[in-house]
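Notes from hallway chat w/ T.B., transcribed later so I don't forget. T.B. wanted the structure written out for a chain they're using in a teaching module, and asked if we could keep both sequence and structure tokens in one place. Agreed to drop them here.
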Amino acid sequence: MKNQLLKESAQRKLMRQSTDNTPITAQYVVIGLGLTGQSCITYLTQQNASFFAIDTRQYPPNLNHIQQHYPHIQIYTGSHVLQYIHHANIAIISPGLSWNTPIMQYIKKNNKPYITDLDLFSKHITVPLIGITGSNGKSTVTAWITWISHRLGLSVAAGGNIGTPVLHFLMRPKQDVYCLELSSFQLDKAKSIPLQYAVFLNISPDHLDEHGSFKAYYHAKQRIFDACQTAIFNENDIATRPQTQSCHRIAFSSNRPKNETQLGIQYHQQIAWITQGSTQLVSAKELKVRGWHNLENAIAVLTIGLQMGFNIQAMIPALKSFPGLPHRCQWVAKKSQVDWFNDSKATNEDAAIQSIKSLATPHHKTLILIAGGQSKGAHFKKLAQMIQKHVKHVILFGENARDIEMAVKDIIPSIQMTSTLEQAVQCAARYAKPHERVVLSPACSSLDMFRNYEERGNQFISYVKALK
């Protein structure tokens, strides 16, 4: 009760502040009070910069925390705060804010100067920056090269779209290298990121609801190369080839190596091996992460490491020991001889396809797929083809479950619609037989029912573990 009274008191105080006061003229206005906005407030406070903060939501989630730790900061909330933007010279925007929101439309319409936290961060950095983007695999590759770098003696911090907001790094001990996962939203809104190594892994339709078209999404991704020294791209995905001519280019490939220095994949006794030329480096069975896509990710990681100056043989033990990331085809439990996998990070069609490929059993359909959420404009035609080949049952939930149902209803007879993820898990448990597999690989965003894909994955894990 006491905490509730304190919360209501803080909200009443904020409402008075938001409606009765007009901001003084400041250098910056921080727009949005999410994790990125909070990191901007911390950084600007330490810099003694003049700024205030706004959020069009009346009660942003982090409001109480910010008020308690930064009571001197002027904060204004509610739909009326757009007019306050003119009281600052520069707007600091969160990359997660869609251009379709009223506040971002207002900035564009009024030609308001803006920057992002990445712009503030990169102007202070004098050590190498690695930037990694792609529709799929960027979190894994970011974490994997960070894992290897640590084990080979470098101090490395990973952040950006994964984990830590970048401005927090400026308030911690300096690292040898910073490795940044970069989303299309971040690349689209940042002015310029001076990357030593810019890595573009792959591209498939995603976030079309935000970008408006695949072409716009592609151009946002290509911006990773705008100010880089070395561009690392996927030879098997022509759209990842840099359009700029001003940087050194390095291609990686999952094809059979063409010479004794090139990395690639070859088969020996029906087992896939990553090789350098004819030299076998590591087999698929030796990696802790599963699937063909993770062999491709491993080649990208080794390519980055070689450019950083690492010895190829020195990287292999660390490559093998990487445990993978939660929510990415993560084994959860065996219940009644059924294996359950959490791939909540598969927020688009292509990621779900890779998950199905990695868990499918040759010649037999032993996979049950749980999918659904916010479709982000996807049509699921490629997913339907993969389901037809490898999936026994499809269980759907979430806002756009009907979109997936429409794509697959004519090719697979066993489809079950459920209202919640918990119901989907219970339904899958009834369908699954011994030695089969169930995977949550939604092919959709989680934001219809959850705060993020992590919460969705954690809920899935709890429901699975509760099964008898």
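Follow-up for T.B.: Residues 2-20 form the longest helix (19 residues). Might be a good example for the class.
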